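subagent[fold] <- orchestrator: predict structure for attached chain, return tokens only, no commentary.
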Amino acid sequence: MPRARSHRRAAVVTGLLAALLIALVLSAANAAPTPLRVSAAVSPTPTGQALPPGFVGLSLEYSAIHRYLGRDPHALNPLFLALVSALAPGGSPVLRIGGDSSDHTWWPMPGVVEPAGVSYALTPDWLATVHAAAGALDARLILGVNLAADNPALAGVEARALLAGIGGKYVDALEIGNEPDVYTRFAWYRTRTRQVGFARGGGWTEPAFLAEFHRWARALPAVPLAGPADAYTDWMAKLSGLLAAPTHLGVVTFHRYPLRSCGAQARGSQAATIPNLLAPAASAGLAASVAPFVAVSHAAGLPFRIDELNSASCGGQPGVSNTFASALWVLDTLFQMASVGVDGVNIHTLPGAAYAPFSFTHVHGVWHATVNPLYYGLRLFTQAFPAGARLLPSSSTATQVKVWSTLATDGTIHTVVINEAANPAVVRLHITGRGGHPLSVERLTAPALTSTTGVQLGGADLAPDTTSATLGAAHLTQLRSLLGEYQLNVPADSAALLTS
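subagent[fold] -> orchestrator:
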């Protein structure tokens, strides 16, 4: 019996020790993560060019116009107008209408059979809708014309219809085709029997495109042109050839997507995942890939615009492109693009795409909007980097904590801190020349990096299924300095805007 009691006591002690060990493990797991200790600094002398007006714009497909704006030019979707206007405060937004639909659209010509790859016909009510929207927004438009149909006369008729119906004063440029460098890679159309048709055959090369570009330029009205609207860097590396020949080229355009959500490239570092989206290659790397072309364009006296950009190609990836991660990605990426001299960026969208910044429904005469996380990142950028502002040199001791700072024309300094780490960060920030003045702090937050709802900017949001596009007044806090240095707590996966 004594031996049995001894075994029971040993079992009880073992059980208690096991329970204690489990409790310690759980306690450690639930403990607050150790914050990152980060030092950051902002220098007083601005660098680079002043940010051009209309830097942030949208890129829309032709077929998206009526779904975003409605069909009555006298009663346009007010939510779309308000959301777009907010991206160009005090200025004219730049809207690019094109994308794949540039090469699938035409203006019907009497006696001419619709080309095989055309699936969308322009109509007078489409033109009236865009004319009304351009007037309401005081917009500047880049309009795609069909190159794939291989008929410059058809493109000329289309361009004249666009100018006459919308109004030349709203048209910044006509863009010839869309991503001609992939004409032999991706199908232009499929027949009813599933046969594949390509826009061009095997002899399609960059010199062949340049020759056609000049043919189309002669057939189009004498307005500024945009191009080459390439998708890859291979052809862009020969950009000087396009710029050397006399044309009406008014803006150099290029398209960029850091990740792929379809095709053979949708794997490895280009797979559409949140870690890949927040990796340096998707932001700083993307900007570095365009920097040489910016330099060539500026040397020729031409602006350079990324007039199609988003997180992942092929409409984006659900669970990535529509999450809060996309807001942090686009915020950093727009700064990166500005830092290499890009003159403007158009975020591509179409109804139903995973990367769309917003969507709309029209029920019983009332418009409703759902505003997605990406849009909040765009809004914070426009607050932090107003037109005319210039970048201030900034640094951070942590690669996952990005610090960007700008000097506005009125002397205001805006500093953005983006924490893409899984841990909170305690940032010790020194801003040279501010003399320890208090800063206002506005935060961009969400319940989690994977959140598709619940995003707040300054404690305010645009509720799901909203009938108002007005973001409530921001809740600002004050941050005071200690011996000329500010200490800012930045939660994991969030951003903050500091203004002085």
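orchestrator: received. Logging for downstream: Residues 48 and 187 are 41 Å apart (CA to CA). Residues 23-29 have pLDDT under 50 and may be disordered.
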